[in-house]
Amino acid sequence: MRFQPDELYEIQNHIFYSLPWVLENDPRFVAVIEAIVTEKFPHREDVARFLDRLAEIRQSMERLEERQETFQVGQDALRQDVTELQQGQTELRQGQTELRQGQTELQQGQTELQQGQTELRQDVTELRQDVTELRQGQVELRQDVTELRQGQVELRQDVTELRQDVTELRQGQVELRGDVTELRQDVTELRGDVVVMRGDVAVMRGDMVVMRGDVADLRQGQNALQSGLDRVDNRLLVLGNRWGVQNETAVRNALRGRLASLGYVVENYEVFDAAGEVHGAPGPVEIDLVVRNGELWLVEIKGRVSGNDLFAFMRKTRFYQTQTGRSATRRIVIAPVIEEPAQARAAQEGIECYSAVDDLQI
Known about the structure:
By secondary structure, this protein is an alpha/beta fold. It is built from eight helices and seven strands; from the N terminus they run H-H-H-H-H-H-E-E-E-E-H-E-E-H-E.
């Protein structure tokens, strides 16, 4: 960049008079001048030439002192520039202060990050412990699955044995049917004899007016005989149940006969389970009810009750209570044969188990 002689003269004069003041008040220019001198004039010859040149400049500046007043306006402008430079320096210092504050905040954030990293490491350690525990649980679960498979094999063996028992029971059932038929014939004949006896008693009433006391005794004996016949009927029903012959209708009739005199009503509740909540598939659900004065008994009558049968009865009771909104005061199972697992589960659930209608506690 080339300058006009007048401009160069003004610049030289300005530097000559301003440089000492700038060097005295701003150490940064001292460092810059030293760096320039060190870089540009590393040799003595260069320094000598620089000094000679500086002497020439001083001479020129002395010659230009007379024109100093002419350039006073430019000097005032320079002073304004210096003032603005000082203001910029103040703003720079403020920026440095803000930068330091930001650095402090950054250090605080770094500290928080380090703390978060420490917590994250702790979480990773805990996760590793959880993974170890899960692996141990997986090993235990595999052992449980192995045990369940062994239990399944044993259960299949039990099912095979039960099927054999069922076959034997069916054979016994055939034999028992003949015995039951004979017993019923005997009961029929006995009832015929009772009818004949009642006719004889009617004929003898005219002759035994005086013997009313004896007639009363005879009536008591007759009532006892009728009770005995009823007990025989119930025992026959129980006997049939033990061999899988007794049907549920007969047991319900016996249950009605026993509870009717006490004011109880035996009903049969049947509804279609569209959602399959009881049996796992849509189908009819049937359960016996005993009702009196706000009491509600839910009764299951079967020839034999296994653990699965008991769970099915529990699902029936829940289904009934959900459908009707009525809660059962008693849950009762009546069966000649109730397997031990079913009895144990029933005791836990508060379900009453009876082998015959006569055993029912009222």
